[in-house]
Amino acid sequence: MQDERTAADVLQCFLTGDARAADLDAVARRLGVTSLSELCENLAAAFGGLLRVDLLLSDVARKLSLFLNGKIARDEMSLWVNCAHSIVTSDRVHQFSPQWDNDTRASAGSGLGPTLRLLSFLFDPQHTAPQFKIRSTLFRILRHLNASQAVPLRGFLPSLFRDMGMLRFFVVANPPHFSLEAPNQWVDVGLAGTTGDDIRLIPLSIFTRRFFHDELPGIVSDASARLGTERCACDRFAYHPENNQAISLLERYPDLNRIPVTFQYFIDENGLAEIIIQAQEIRREHVRFAVKLFCLQNEVGRAMLDDHHVSCAQGAPWAL
């Protein structure tokens, strides 16, 4: 048990910047584990099923400030961000933050999970935006963190996508239990790095209308029960009819009115797109259509889907 207590202390110190990644690796090896997720699981089991960590937005701000002031290297910052994101979003971790006055999953109310995911995306060595634009974005993020405010991802992501120039999209295989229960009803589209060998972010999901409204809520609830976690009580305001981005898209791009596809376009609380298609199943042409909609909504000029160019410009052919 002493080794577990030491590991938990080192994990906490790593999050707050008082321990190095090498220290974390050393305690992990001592416990015979090879990954952060396995370390979190082992420590959670040792401490009654859930591991409690303490991380504030101000801790992230302090670390980011050190990087922007040249006190730590980019590689070190990238490693810390990726490790911190893995830790605080683990199913076996509860995060306690006095600024939120309760125990909470970091990926929910605190804004830590989404903020760390955004930083992980920006520090990715394959990120295609120019470094001066990434640095400018990091300073904007730091201003929010210094004010102990969660980063408003809905306001950040569109400019990030535009800064990247060419976007490389790939269809992502959904988890097996979802794929079996809902074949061709839900498709995730991932954003890859320059080589296309790894998915960096999933900015777009496509659903059939029936599945999204009638079946998805139950599947998500069942999955949460299987994992032993509470379903996130997210604000459903993002999905109110007045927030359907399809309305403005049809006004801005009249050619869309000639496409024989009825769609809805919502942006969730994390700034990610959810496009709902009126169809019996999601087919390849629907995925291509959704990627075009995504590019128009975010004013992205160039994109590829599974290594095939997608015409994103206004007036581009829209035939399915």
Model description:
With 320 residues, the chain is of the alpha/beta class. It has two domains: 1-151, no CATH class; 154-320, no CATH class. Helices cover 46% and strands 17% of the residues. Helix 1 runs antiparallel to helix 2 (21-30) and helix 5 (74-88) packs antiparallel against helix 6 (112-122). The radius of gyration is 21 Å and the shape is globular.
Cα distance, first to last residue? 61 Å
Please give the radius of gyration in angstroms.
Answer: 21 Å
Q: Portion of residues in helices?
A: 40-55%
Q: Strand share of the residues?
A: 15-25%
Which ranges are low-confidence, i.e. pLDDT below 50, for 5 or more consecutive residues? Answer: 96-109, 227-235
Q: From N to C, what is the helix and strand string?
A: HHHEHHEEHHHEHEEHHEEHEE
Secondary-structure content class: alpha/beta
What integer is the average pLDDT?
Answer: 80
**What's the domain count?**
2
**Inertia-based shape:** globular
Instruction: Write down the oligomeric state.
Output: single chain
Give the strand order, joined by hyphens, for the main sheet: 7-8-6-5-4-9-10
Number of strands: 10
Largest sheet: 7 strands, mixed
- Tally the helices: 12
What's the quick description here?
The chain is an alpha/beta fold.
What are the SSEs and their pairings?
Layout: H1 2-15, H2 21-30, H3 36-46, E1 51-53, H4 57-68, H5 74-88, E2 93-97, E3 102-104, H6 112-122, H7 131-146, H8 153-163, E4 166-172, H9 176-181, E5 186-192, E6 199-208, H10 209-227, H11 246-252, E7 263-267, E8 273-277, H12 284-298, E9 302-305, E10 308-311
Parallel strand pairs: 1-2, 4-9, 6-8
Antiparallel strand pairs: 2-3, 4-5, 5-6, 7-8, 9-10
